[in-house]
Design brief:
It contains nine helices and ten strands. By secondary structure, it is α+β, with helices and mostly antiparallel strands. It folds into three domains: 73 residues, Orthogonal Bundle (Arc Repressor Mutant, subunit A); 94 residues, Alpha-Beta Plaits (2-Layer Sandwich); 68 residues, 2-Layer Sandwich (Alpha-Beta Plaits). The protein has a four-stranded antiparallel sheet, with helices on both faces. α2 runs antiparallel to α3 and α2 runs parallel beside α4. The model has no long low-confidence stretch (mean pLDDT 88).
């Protein structure tokens, strides 16, 4: 799990700073809009919307953009209708990929995802081929002493705390996610990243060559405008991740 999560964090931070900023803002606003359409415009009563807003704000999406997205979602402002579609497939080394799409054009999305898998050595699978390997969970990457992280996280309802190098992966149920993150912050624990994500039931360790191949496919999928997120069950050591990221 750690390899995928840390790579996502690296890409997420980079995207907020470079020429991909506009595309990142659009995707985050789209997530806010869809969450508001599905569960209402009040983040206090809509956990998915609260998470989407938090993620948008952490990437410095302007408040006006967020408010407009909420208004589009609840129908106060006219906007496109986005469908959520999940694509499933495999990358090099047998790594499972679970791809979330939010799109207003199903044909365009399907064509883009299919061709990207093909160009980068992947195989698009049938519905249900890999989805069963993933479960929605809250994920927090924390930095602090083991005692501080363990005590704050478990007391607040975390399901698991796993060491990952000099950091800790905190796993929660989606309903407990915000309370656990708040407890960590109040305890003075650093929160490197946090999100509601899809966590695999088992992971596949990768060497550098295979890791580069897998990450090229993941990155290419994430570049597609219709793709909201890509989840994978690879695990890459910190040493290999540093080599690949460098």
């Amino acid at each position: 799990m750690s390899g995928h999560s840390k790579w996502s964090t690296i890409k997420y931070k980079k995207g907020a700073k470079d020429v991909q900023r506009g595309k990142l803002f659009a995707k985050l606003a789209r997530a806010v809009e869809v969450a508001a359409r599905q569960g209402g415009g009040d983040p206090a009563a809509n956990a998915a919307l609260a998470q989407a807003i938090d993620k948008a704000k952490s990437a410095s999406v302007p408040n006006d953009n967020i408010e407009r997205a909420i208004k589009r979602g609840v129908g106060d402002v006219e906007g496109a209708h986005y469908d959520e579609i999940w694509y499933e497939g495999y990358a090099a080394g047998g790594v499972a990929l679970y791809v979330q799409v939010l799109t207003d054009n199903r044909n365009r999305a399907a064509s883009g995802v299919r061709s990207t898998f093909g160009r980068h050595g992947g195989n698009l699978g049938e519905p249900g081929s890999v989805g069963y390997l993933f479960e929605q969970k809250g994920y927090i990457l924390a930095l602090g002493s083991e005692d501080d992280v363990m005590l704050a996280a478990l007391d607040a309802g975390a399901e698991d705390v796993r060491p990952s190098g000099d950091q800790f992966e905190v796993i929660t149920s989606p309903p407990d996610f915000r309370a656990v993150r708040q407890a960590l912050e109040e305890a003075g624990v650093g929160v490197e990243s946090s999100e509601i994500t899809q966590i695999p039931s088992a992971t596949i360790p990768l060497g550098e060559e295979t890791a580069r191949s897998v990450l090229r496919l993941v990155d290419a999928l994430e570049e597609l405008d219709d793709v909201q997120a890509v989840y994978a069950n690879f695990d890459i050591s910190d040493e290999v991740l540093a080599a690949v990221a460098g």
